[in-house]
Structures are given as structure tokens and as C-alpha cells.
Amino acid sequence: MATKHxxxxxxxxxxxxxxxMELLYEAATIHREHHDPNTVQVSTLLSIKTGxxxxxxxxxxxxxRYHTDLEGNDLMSxxxxxxxxxxxxxSGSSRVCMGAAWRNxxxxxxxxxxxxxxxxxxxxxxxxxxxxxMLTENQAERLAEAGLYAYNHNxxxxxxxxxxxxxxxxxxxxxxxxxxxxxxxxxxxxxxxxGMGESEADRAGMxxxxxxxxxxxxxxxxxxxVPVEGTPLEEQAPVPIWEMIRMVATTRIVMPExxxxxxxxxxxxxxxxxxxxxxxxxxxxxxGDKLLTTPNxxxxxxxxxxxxxxxxxxxxxxxxxxxxxxDAENSQYQSKGEKPKWSRPGHKIERNLDAQQKTKAKA
Length: 363
Ligand code: SF4
Description:
10-stranded parallel β-sheet, 13 helices
């Protein structure tokens, strides 16, 4: 079935509020149609530049204006990043996501260093993702040339609720950055956070904004707020596990091809709760005892959980991103006897060869 791109808030709310067992069954069925239910990607999130951010995201201890216990650091060196990536690979990660607490990317030495980090991790045969703030089209192209696999830029919440949490940049700024990434062959990672005081309608609104993008993001992280002392959201109550499962299941139903990432907040979840999230369609976790700056389960604990549940870590570049939309576009070029335009870093050789062989066979 073709992916639906015209979800409304009402339709999504209806899904979110289905009787729990029905919701779970529907999400698990869709998940099995599009993904291997026993495979979950393990990713490592690396804070390459911590703290001192000029933005005012209400949940974030890295915002310079909030008084938290966070220790900031300048941009890491390429060698430090390489060492951490090798360690992550050895413990089962197939993807490294590098985060820098910047409002936007500035051309210059630091960005050149980040490009070198991307090249370095790419050579390790790992998927490499960056989250560096707002990005111009030219910067997105330079990251693509360096071999970036994915760019993360979260929408955080619905457009309506976003204003309650962030005032220093608008929702449209975020969509523009996603649009700039989309013009390259870098895949899009964009999701949000629940538990910031938003309503169910806001959660549905965020999923409308993501699912109506065409193509839909290849990756959607769903975070449960981890309230940090000193931030405006420090008093928020923890997200009940049932709401997290409902959010994951609804995301899976409205974005069937997407890699749904069970992200921040896992330390508050039991293994049973996480298992239900995997059943409902989550197929990625972040490993390592820190998620940028907030606590995360130990990697050994995660591997024990994988063993108990019979889950296998996904290999790098295993998941074909948005096969429908890519294949549809490629076929237009192939039918004219031209080389396919779209490829994805990592499986471009395989995909291009494949397509070229088919074109030759036709000729
Ligand atoms: S979430 Fe990102 S942009 Fe917002 S304050 Fe934190 S580091 Fe800065």
C-alpha cells in the first residue's frame, strides 16, 4: 500500500486513542509488513560540543541561559571522535550521531572539522548522522559530499505547542532546515519530545507535521522528557509508559517505513515497557550511559535485554530508506536510459549497480 501523506489531526487522534490492544495489534501488524520485528538498530549519540547554546529550548540543559550542573566542552577533535566511534562499533552500534549545541552551523574551521569527522566515521562503515542546528542548502550539500547518512533536526512538538517551549527560533525555521537536507541525498531524522505539558492533540499535531512531509522522514525519534533541574521544564511529571507506547504505535501506523527511535527517557522505563514499545514498532535505541547530557541505560544492560527478547542489532545501511519514493523517482530516469538520480550513502553502489544492470538488461 502506498504511504499516506495526508493524515489529519483527527485521524491521528482516533488512532492514538484506540483501545490499547487494538492499537498495539494494528501497529505490530504494520511493523511486520515493513520491517523485521526482531531487528533493532543500536545507535550512539555523541555530544561533540556541549553546552553554551544561545537558544532557549525549555527542556535543554545545554542552553546557556539556564543554571544547571552541566559541564560544557569545546568541539572535540577528529581523533577523539574516531576513538569513540570505534568503541561504539565494537559494542554493537551501527550508527553514530554527533550533536553540537549550536543555533546554526557556521562556515569555518569548526564546520571543516565536523566534515572531517563525518568522512572519518563513514570510512568505519558506520551510518553517520549529525545534529548541529539550522543548516543552509550549501552546508547540507557539503555534509552530503562528506558522506553524511542522516541529519537530525527535531520538530519537538506541534506547531501550536512549540511556542510554549522555544522562542528563539520558529517552527518554519525547523521545516526550512529539513527542506534543505531533503534537497541532498542525506536522509532526514526528525521527531519530538512528549511530556513537556502538551496535550494529546499536540502530540497528534506533531505527527501530522512529520507524516505529511513527502517523503516522510526516514527516522523519527520519540523522546520522553527527562526533566533537568535548572531548566523551565524541571517540574514536569514523568511520562506514563502507556502514553509512550501509544505514541510509538501511532507513529508506526502513520509512518510505516520510518525507523522509529525509542530515544530519551529509557532509564525510567522497565524492560517490559521497552519490549512493548518494540512490539508497537520502535526499531532503534540509543546506546551508552549518556544521551547527549541525560542518563541512559548501560550498553551491557541493553545487550542483556536484546538477548532476553531475541532481538538482533541492525547492521549499518541495512534498512533501505524510503524504497517506494526512491524507486519511483529512479525509475523515471531508468525509463529514459539514464543513471538513477537518487542513491543513499552506504548502499549507493549496490543500488546504482542494481539499477544499471536492469537498465542494461532492458536495452
Ligand atoms: S536543544 Fe539544541 S538548540 Fe535547543 S538549547 Fe539545546 S542544544 Fe541549543
